[in-house]
Amino acid sequence: MLGEMSDRSREVFRRVVEGYLATGDPVGSRTLTRSMTEKVSAATIRNVMQDLEFLGLLDSPHVSAGRVPTQLGLRMFVDGLLEIQELEPGDREKIDATVGSNARDVGSMLDKIGAALSGVTRGASLVLAPKHEAPIRHIDFVNLAPDRALAVLVFADGHLENRVFRPAPGQTPSSMREAANFLNALAEGKTLSELREAMAVEVTRHRQELDERARSMVESGLAVWENEGETQARLIVRGRSNLLEDSAESAELERIRSLFDDLERKRDIVEFLERTEEGDGVRIFIGSENKLFSLSGSSLVVSPYMNADRKIIGAVGVIGPTRLNYGRIVPIVDYTAQVVGKLISDRGKG
Known about the structure:
Blueprint: H1 7-23, H2 29-33, H3 42-54, E1 58-59, E2 68-69, H4 71-80, H5 89-97, H6 106-121, E3 124-128, E4 136-145, E5 148-155, E6 160-165, H7 173-187, H8 192-205, H9 212-225, E7 235-238, H10 240-245, H11 250-265, H12 269-276, E8 283-286, E9 298-306, E10 312-321, H13 326-349
Antiparallel strand pairs: 1-2, 3-7, 3-10, 4-5, 5-6, 8-9, 9-10
Helix pairs in contact: 1-3, 5-13, 6-13, 7-9, 8-9
Family: Belongs to the HrcA family.
Function: Negative regulator of class I heat shock genes (grpE-dnaK-dnaJ and groELS operons). Prevents heat-shock induction of these operons.
Keywords: Repressor, Stress response, Transcription, Transcription regulation
């Protein structure tokens, strides 16, 4: 569509979007008469704006109050007209400062990086941490309530994880022990991913040998690890207050709260990571383009990060209003993803 526009229409569109991203306010024709390359009347600019509105690229929130870009308009601007800025030295220094924090574990390190990313961008940061892939030393199940159980995972490197899940009805301490014994016989020297594959084979092979309750216990545990309502990756969100502070209107506050309710329930996190893997580098999701944030009226700038084997293992991103300063945020997210990938790779070598 950009290629079919006249130079005047393209400039009006670009200046409206840039003005909106800078201030959050609708941009009027009189404002544009002072900045256009060619001298044109306000009436001419209003006619161009009406044409752009007809195309679905601009919208007028109030009568005679100027125009703002629609989601389609923002998408077209980001894809075709956005000018990516150079990473500012001060932003680089703040991200780099987290590298020397000597965090004891990956989770603490990523939490510090998330806090720095939130501080630099004044948005909410999102970090999807890699799953733990050290070999498993021991697995145990603990009954917490009729509908809740705890899976205790001890890894060979000393890492410990506790995961609460919902077991199949009717589990007993005996069936839990049998399930744990079954898993521990398979688990030695295997990572969670490898154990999951081995479990699928073994459950099929020995289905008749297992007590019905023990078998359902194993399958319940498998379902937890296969992302049924939970994921192996850990989601870290920092800077929630940044979004709430910038949202003056009650309706906007409600949309932001809805976003964080979604995040806290970890809805669609698997899809989120899969979508970051669809392309290399930074991706921008505007409003309802990302199912995870469809109710929030927010944008997400996200980049996957890789380990030493160039395999995508997680992602970092920034959540903010759709009027984000995309040109500044994109290089910050890109650089942070590179930093995280290098830190993860260096720790793996150690």
